[in-house]
Amino acid sequence: MSDADFFNELWTYFIAIITVVGMLACALLLWQQGRQKVAAPGDADNTTGHVWDGDLRELNNPLPRWWMWMFYLTVVFSLGYLVVYPGLTTYRGSFGWTSAGAYELERAALEKQIAPLYAGFTAKSAEQLGQDPEAMAVGGRLFLNNCAQCHGSDARGSKGFPNLTDSDWLYGGSAEAIRTSITDGRNGFMPPMGDAIGGEDAARNVAQYVLSLSGRENDPVRANLGRSKFSACAACHGADGKGNPLLGAPNLTDRIWLHGGREADIVQTIMQGRSGTMPVHKDRLTEAQIHVLTGYLMKISGASEAATPVASTKP
């Protein structure tokens, strides 16, 4: 099932027709009701036939004129709204207004408003921002608003979403690499390798070999059988299994597992492959905001301390 099953151009015409017909029907109903007149004294019975408390009768008088004219005005306003703003199929309205255009204007106004706040941050390196409490407070808010949905409010991630508080980076932990990940996003892909290595039983052998690379408990016999099959994985992970940041290929010699480190998890990864997307943020955040967020991520992962030179205590 695809989006086309739910969204079709015919629906826009259907909604437009229902909208216009509804407005005209309201106007017709008002006109019809407006033709009724209040019954004069002595005329035929003008009640609805409803009686309460013995003698309280409901009259069948027309709607008040002021109420009728107010209703007419709402119909006229609605028709005018559809002329000025988009609402009828592909018609864009005489003002040419779009929600995307309104968003861009609001964003431009906001960027202008917050520019002075970030002016003091742009002159500092990402490593230096890690030592600035104000920059870290701003970076924390940026993280909660834009990254916590996937990586968690504590940035420790979950299965399938990287932990950003450790020193393990799929694409490298330098300021430039992190900034690129935020700006342009990432598309990680591990192809299914079941056929390439000879089926599920061979995948179990490779899984045991992978477990041995990180010093995890493993079956030595199966691990030895999986060693030769691992050559099919070496193109991305390297012959030593230490990965390749240029490809986003994980280091298999540590004990950090993005999709789980049990044999069953590893076998599933080998047989079915994995894919993951880090969305592009350059359309959501300014360069200055990305710079501050980069500094924040380096700080919480410990990369900024590792990269910041320590002042010498020697005379």
TrEMBL record:
Positions with a binding annotation for heme c 1: 147, 150-151, 278
Description of how the protein assembles with itself and partners: Component of the cbb3-type cytochrome c oxidase.
Q: What is this protein called?
A: Cbb3-type cytochrome c oxidase subunit
Species of provenance: Pigmentiphaga aceris
User: Which controlled-vocabulary keywords does the entry list?
Assistant: Cell inner membrane, Cell membrane, Electron transport, Heme, Hydrogen ion transport, Ion transport, Iron, Membrane, Metal-binding, Oxidoreductase, Repeat, Respiratory chain, Transmembrane, Transmembrane helix, Transport
Positions with a binding annotation for heme c 2: 190, 233, 236-237
Q: Which InterPro entries match?
A: CcoP_N, CcoP_N_sf, Cyt_c-like_dom, Cyt_c-like_dom_sf, Cyt_c_oxidase_cbb3_su3, Cytochrome_c_Oxidase_Subunit
The UniProt entry, under PANTHER family, shows:
CBB3-TYPE CYTOCHROME C OXIDASE SUBUNIT FIXP (PTHR33751:SF1)
Cellular component terms (Gene Ontology): plasma membrane
Where mainly found? Answer: membrane
State which pathway it belongs to: Energy metabolism; oxidative phosphorylation
* Function field: C-type cytochrome. Part of the cbb3-type cytochrome c oxidase complex.
Q: How is the cofactor bound?
A: Binds 2 heme C groups per subunit.
